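User: Here's a protein and a ligand (adenosine-5'-triphosphate). What would the complex look like?
Assistant: Let me lay out the input and then the predicted complex.
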Amino acid sequence: MPFYDLKSGKTLIINGPASIKLLEGRASILGCPLPQKKQVVIKSWRSRPVYAYEDSKIEYTFGEGGSIEEVDGNTIPDEWLKTIQEIAELDQSILMFMGTSDSGKTSLATLGANIIVGMKKRCIFVDLDIGQSSICPPTTIGYVYLKNPLPDISYVRAESIEAVGYTSPTHIMARHVKAVENLYNNLKEKYSVQNLVIDVDGWINSEGAIHHKKELMKIFNPTHLLIIGDAYPGLQEYCEEYSIGLRELPPPIFVRKRSLEARKKLREMMYERFLRKSVVRTIPVSWVELEYITGENRVYKISQIINKLLVLFAEDKGIVIEEGLEEIYRIYGAGILCHLYDVNYTFSGIGLLTMFNLKKNLLKIYTSFQAQIKRIVLSSLIVSVEGSELFSTPPQALES
Ligand SMILES: Nc1ncnc2c1ncn2[C@@H]1O[C@H](COP(=O)(O)OP(=O)(O)OP(=O)(O)O)[C@@H](O)[C@H]1O
Ligand SMILES: [Mg+2]
C-alpha cells in the first residue's frame, strides 16, 4: 500500500473516495485526532484536511476521482482555532455560523464540536441545512449527541429528525422555521442543553436570507455567531441587542469549491443512505393522512399536484407519461420523495411514492420504514431508488 511522509506543520488534503491510515506520528482532521493504524474513510465528493503535529507516515488508497495534495501549514486559520478554544472553555456555548456556500461553515462547526467533545464536554450537533445535510436526508433537519470527535460529522446519523420538504429554504422559509422550533423543543425535552453546535445553509445574499437566519437565531439564542467573511449590515447591532458574541473569521486557507453537480451528488448520497434496505409497501389511501408540503391535504388536490409534477417531469425529460407514477417507477426506478410519520406522528423516514390510485384506494411507497405509516407528506422532488435527484421544482409551482 502506498504511504505519504507528511512533515510536521503541513496539511494533506484528501479528496474522496479515499481511505487513509496513520502509521506513525500524530495528526488530526478538523480537531479530531487520527487514530493510530485505523482506517479512516473519506467519502466520494468530500475532502478532509489532515494536519500533522509531528512528522507522520500516512498510508493511503483512493478510488476513481480520489486524490491527495500537500499544502504548506495548517489550512485551519489560527483565528478559527483560537476562537473555538476560547469558546470551548466556557460552561455553556451555543454556536451558530454564517457564511456563503462553501465558505467552510460545516468544517468550522465540525472543528468546534470536536474540540468541545475532546474536552469531555457534552455536545449536540444540530444540522439545519436542508440542502447539504450531514446527518439527515436532504429536505430535513436533525440533531445528534456526539460521543466522540469525528473526522466527518456525516459518519453519524441524526437521532431525531424534523421534515421541512425542499432542498433550499428560499421557497419554504416559514416551514423551515416551524420545523426548527419543533426540533429545538424536542431537543430541550431530551437533553439539558450544554453545548450546541448549529450548522446552517449558505443562503445569506439578501435581506430575506438574513431575516431567515435571525429567525433561526431567535429559536436557539446562540451565545456566539461565527461569521466566515464580513458581517452583514445591521448584524452587529442585532447581536449586541441579543447579547450574541459576534466573531468575524477569515475563510479557510484552502477550499475545494464544489460545483452544483458535486453538491447534487452529495445530496444523492444522503438520499441513498436513508433509502437503503427499502421495499415497496402497498397501503390503502384511506388508511393514511396525506399532505403536500404546502399544507394542502385534500386528496383530490393532492392527486392534481401529483399530475402536475408528472407533467413537468415529462416535459423536462422530453417523454410522454400515460400511466402515472407507476411508469416513472418502471422506467426510472423513481418516485416522489415523501416524509413518513408513525402512529405517534413522529418523523420515521423518507420514502418514494411509486403509485397513487384513488379508484383502487391504493398507494405504493418505497421505504425502509417497516412499522405503521400514519401520515405521508409529499414533496415536489422526484428521486430514484439509488438516490438520484431526477427532478425538482419549488413547491408552490405545483399548486397553480
Ligand atoms: N480548513 C479547511 N481546510 C481544508 N479544507 C477545508 C477547510 N474548510 C473547508 N474545507 C473544504 O472546503 C469545502 C467547503 O467546506 P464546508 O463544507 O465546510 O463549507 P460550507 O460552508 O459548510 O458549505 P455549504 O454551504 O455547502 O454547506 C469542503 O470540501 C471542505 O472539506
Ligand atoms: Mg455546510
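Summary: Residues 13, 47, 49, 75-76, 99, 101-107, 129, 132, 202, 252, 254-256 surround adenosine-5'-triphosphate (ligand 1) (CB under 6 Å).
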